[in-house]
Amino acid sequence: MTSGAGERLPELYVAVDVEADGPIPGPYSMISLGMAVAGRPDLTFYTELKPISEEFVPAALAVSGLDRDRLLREAPTAEEAMGAAASWVNGLRRIGRPVFLAAPAVWDGMFVHWYFVRFTGRSPFGATGSGVDLRSWWMGRTGCEWVRTRKGIIKHELGLTDVPHTHHAGEDAAELAQVFDAALRHRPGRAEAG
């Protein structure tokens, strides 16, 4: 059986981080999107987005530190931002096969998949938008319980205590890419699995 050229290219784990002004897409808005390729700090993407709804949760908006009024005036529309994001992901196909990665994949994936389908017609990560969830991956890798899979714990076990989580989607995508790259190279010991 002959494999296609794309199958010979390596997988590229695209760490994705979202900031939003509420708990679900549609009634609320994704207000920034960051992406970074694990092991390739030179491959990053960041955009802010104009809110798509008048509704927002002040506490959720405050997490990002973004000014909603400024986003309404200056940010690209969801169509423009997601079109640019899809083009960036699809451009990676020259060097590899993009695989969605998030922490947690449920939260970020919910917004990203909904936004891609709603505003571009399809997700560059596939019809289901599925991908790798860091916490689930770490459970499988180490045999630990769910409670031991928080990103802070993973970072500590990998010796990445100086890598901050800032709630800036671009910076947090780069953080996740760095964590997953280190996790891929990590060889868990028996003590961690207990």
Task: Give a description of the structure.
With 194 residues, the protein is α/β, with parallel strands linked by helices. The protein has 9 helices and 5 strands. Strands 3-2-1-4-5 form a 5-stranded mixed β-sheet, sandwiched between helices. Helix 5 links the parallel strand 4 and strand 5 (131-133). The termini are far apart.
Characteristic key phrases:
single chain, 194 residues, alpha/beta, 5-stranded mixed beta sheet, 5 strands, disordered C terminus
Provide a concise account of the structure shown:
The chain has 9 helices and 5 strands, in the order H-E-E-E-H-H-H-E-H-E-H-H-H-H. It has helices at 5-8, 58-64, 68-74, 78-91, 105-120, 134-142, 151-157, 169-185, 190-193, and strands spanning 11-20, 30-37, 40-48, 97-102, 131-133.
What topology emerges from the helices and strands here?
Layout: H1 5-8, E1 11-20, E2 30-37, E3 40-48, H2 58-64, H3 68-74, H4 78-91, E4 97-102, H5 105-120, E5 131-133, H6 134-142, H7 151-157, H8 169-185, H9 190-193
Parallel strand pairs: 1-4, 4-5
Antiparallel strand pairs: 1-2, 2-3
Helix pairs in contact: 4-5
Low-confidence stretches: 190-194
Percent strand: 15-25%
- The span between the termini is 42 Å
Adjacency order of strands in the biggest sheet: 3-2-1-4-5
Order of helices and strands: HEEEHHHEHEHHHH
Class derived from helix and strand content: alpha/beta
What integer value in Å does the Rg equal?
17 Å
**Largest sheet, if any?**
5 strands, mixed
Estimate percent helicity.
Answer: 40-55%
Q: Which of globular, elongated, flat, extended, rod-shaped describes the shape? A: globular
Protein name: DNA polymerase III epsilon subunit-like protein
Organism: Micromonospora purpureochromogenes
